[in-house]
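Supplementary notes for students who missed Thursday's class. We covered one full example, reproduced here. Read the sequence, then the structure, then the short commentary at the end.
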Amino acid sequence: MSIPSVREIWENGDKCINGWCAMPSTVTAEIVARQPFDTLTIDLQHGLVDYQMALTMLQAMGVSDVPKLARVRWNDPGFIMALLDAGFTGIICPMINTRAEAEAFVSACHYAPRGSRSFGPTRASIAYGADYQEQAKTRIATLAMIETREALDNLDDILTVEGLDAVYIGPSDLAISMGYPPSLENIAPEVEEAIVTIREKAQAAGRFAGIHTGNSAVAAAKLKDGFNLASLSTDTKIFSAAVADMLRNARPDAGDKTVKALY
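Structure (token representation):
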């Protein structure tokens, strides 16, 4: 079996709606994976998922043959390598602020001579075959999160890093860094302008661009605007909103007592 490649999807001119799993559950992971998402992501940064749970969720996602990405907790080469060895086919790395950080991230994702990844694809070789190392040269995706003013200032240098496939925008952290409240839906004009700048510069440099969104309308709009990938909220936010809405419909006096996740 070939490694499912999000780069191949993009190079064919197609766009991705990305399913996002932050809840530590194989059942919810399988439910999300059974929907016709173009890509799937397990969140180990702000989600409640550790390495072992991410592995079992990834196995549950085997019902789908789309690319599976992991958002790592930090730019930690050992952790990145372990997740790739588990069988993830791409990595989203948060808080990439400089060229040096982007270089370290990309290096951890690739074997020599391109990078510094240690060889030991324990599950990946079982899932994708004995030629995994050869496939990994071109089919593992690297997405650097651009989500601070510092990253915006250093964007031109970051985009020159060989082997960086895409940038991924975190609007909430970007907003905080620029002095605005965090939001995925009501985005300040200055932050929205920065988002457009990041996308345009990335694509002009031959990279792809993804973004996190808070609802289906924003996700559809971002893809129409030219983004290559838009994450459709998170499983926690979708689940909590659905429960709250159904409860209010069944018992209107629930009112403001219902709770919705912010992320």
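Commentary. DSSP finds 13 helices and eight strands in the chain. The two ends are 34 Å apart (CA to CA). If anything here is unclear, bring it to office hours.
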